[in-house]
Design a protein that fits this description.
- The complex is a heterodimer of chains A (257) and B (253).
- Chain A has 257 residues and is mainly α.
- Chain A is built from nine helices and no strands.
- Chain A has one domain.
- With 253 residues, chain B is an alpha/beta fold.
- Chain B contains nine helices and ten strands.
- In chain B, a hairpin with a 2-residue loop joins strand 9 and strand 10.
- Classes of the chains: A mainly alpha (257), B alpha/beta (253).
- Chains A and B meet through helix 5 of A and strand 6 and helix 4 of B.
């Protein structure tokens, strides 16, 4: 007789095994960032690729989200005669939540997918094997620079996104909602606390790590030619997004408590 | 002569299938061994186990008498410096120029200064008869034959003790394939290294091998000097060399 619970059990075991493999890969990736040899040139190249070239997409996302947020809060606030809270809630929403999460999601699409595709192609064309035979550890040469670059540059991107997002809210508030510009900015800065910014930056660093490690993990373990690389890329984006949203809740809950 | 590389009783199971079932090979310095065999018989897995890219389930991989499977990673990495490998598809790094590919080990493992590394890369290009004008282009701009030459230059630049060739002539026209075979023979002679190749290409095997071994069902079923290939007396070797569908080996279709 076929046990109806067997497929469920198999699925759970396979899921747990995958989590274990990912955790081991993440641990090895993190350890590779702190053990020599270090490839400074690769790290700087990745900082450019991950950080600098992501600026336009992060900036555009932030300005539109800040603007839309200001409009929504104005409409919602009007129901309680609380329209004046627009600057306070915009800065809180941007720095604590929307800045890091949206930057993380945008980079999951741009960076995690890119890393998975690049390393996945190197896997199926034997370039990773070639690197190993050339006495160079792919974890140190390929993965560590990407993980370090994403972990360090995403907080910087989020800091810029925070500023641009607030400015998006400011532009809408002053040009469409008749707010006084100086008052809007004063309220923003008076309300903002350092822990709001710190929370966003901590989230950004963790999201950067997740994005790079997930992309590298999926690429490193890809197989089956172009189809396998395509699957790895999709898995990297989906996996990064799910992990970012889950970890975002855990970090927020930890800071709130 | 003492074996430079020796595989003893190598076993490897992949996805429940016994791919290698006690492979035994050895090759001395200055000698060239070619492993022939059908698709899926474990030739590539044998090479990966020898190179340390795959850990065998059982058996020993001896390099100069020392078992690399039992070495800690940092010591094994040092032994890997004795190896050079030409991959089937070249496996050149897309993001680097041709000379950076060739000098990869010098630049990133041996920390040789870039000007000196480039000079040595161009010298290696000259040896494999790849024009210097291609030094600064990306591998994608090279033809298949030129990519093989660049891969060979990368394999020999650090003067390895053991050279591995994975299907060195696959995908090349007969004339280019013959030129690559000539280069392999020349490089092995010049470096005095041990060479292990895997191939389906019998003209290539005959040209580059001092000895030929046939792998079937994860075991070496015949081994002998290249001159005895046509008089092996082994039905499987005879079928493979003649390229017949009928015989003890079932064609995989």
């Amino acid at each position: 007789m076929i046990n109806p619970f067997a497929p469920i059990g198999r699925g759970v075991l396979a899921g747990l095994a995958e989590i274990g493999r990912f955790a081991a890969f993440a641990g090895r990736s993190a350890a590779s960032c702190f053990a020599p040899p270090f490839f400074l040139g690769q790290f700087l190249r990745q900082c450019m690729a991950v950080g600098y070239y992501s600026l336009p997409v992060i900036g555009l996302t932030a300005v539109f989200i800040g603007a839309a947020l200001a409009l929504n809060i104005y409409v919602g606030g009007a129901r309680f005669n609380a329209e004046s809270f627009v600057p306070n809630i915009v800065v809180l929403g941007i720095t604590r939540e929307l800045g890091p999460v949206l930057a993380g999601l945008m980079l999951a699409g741009r960076v995690s997918a890119g890393i998975a595709a690049e390393i996945g192609t190197m896997r199926v064309t034997e370039q990773l094997d070639a690197m190993t035979t050339l006495s160079t550890d792919p974890f140190k040469f390929l993965i560590a620079p990407r993980v370090l670059a994403a972990t360090l540059t995403l907080p910087l991107l989020v800091l810029i996104a925070d500023i641009i997002g607030v400015m998006g809210g400011y532009l809408v508030a002053t040009y469409s909602l008749d707010f006084n510009g100086a008052t809007y900015l004063r309220n923003t800065f008076n309300f903002l606390e350092s822990q709001d910014v710190v929370l966003g930056l901590v989230k950004a660093a963790v999201f950067g790590f997740i994005i790079a490690v997930m992309g590298a993990y999926q690429g490193f373990n890809s197989s089956g030619g172009a189809l396998g690389v395509g699957r790895a890329t999709t898995n990297a984006v989906v996996g990064s997004i799910v992990l970012i949203l889950a970890v975002n809740y855990l970090i927020t809950a930890f800071f709130v408590e | 002569m003492a074996a430079k590389l020796q595989l003893i009783g190598i076993k490897k199971k992949l996805r429940g299938r016994q791919v290698l079932d006690g492979v035994e090979i050895d090759v001395a310095a200055g000698r060239s061994l070619v492993i022939i065999g059908g698709s899926g018989q474990g030739k590539s897995v044998t090479l990966k186990c020898a190179l340390g890219l795959m850990k065998p389930d059982a058996g020993q991989v001896l390099v100069d008498g020392a078992d690399v499977t039992k070495m800690p990673p940092e010591i094994r990495a040092r032994v890997m410096r004795k190896f050079g490998m030409l991959f089937q598809g070249g496996a050149l790094f897309d993001s680097l120029t041709v000379w950076e590919n060739i000098a990869f080990r010098l630049l990133y493992a041996d920390k040789v200064a870039r000007p000196e590394a480039k000079e040595r890369a161009i010298e290696a290009m000259r040896k494999v008869r790849l024009a210097q004008e291609f030094a600064d282009v990306r591998p994608i701009e090279l033809s298949g034959g030129m990519q093989k030459r660049a891969g060979l230059a990368r394999a020999i630049i650090a003067k390895p003790d053991i050279l591995f060739f994975d299907e060195p002539t696959t995908g090349l026209d007969p004339i280019t394939a013959d030129a690559i075979n000539d280069l392999i023979v020349e490089m092995v002679k010049e470096l005095g290294c041990a060479a292990v190749s895997i191939t389906h290409d019998m003209p290539s095997a005959r040209k580059i091998a001092d000895e030929i071994a046939m792998l079937h069902n994860g075991r070496i079923v015949w081994r002998g000097p290249t001159s005895t290939l046509d008089t092996s007396g082994n039905a499987m070797v005879e079928q493979f060399v003649a390229g017949r569908a009928d015989g003890p080996i079932q064609a995989v279709v």
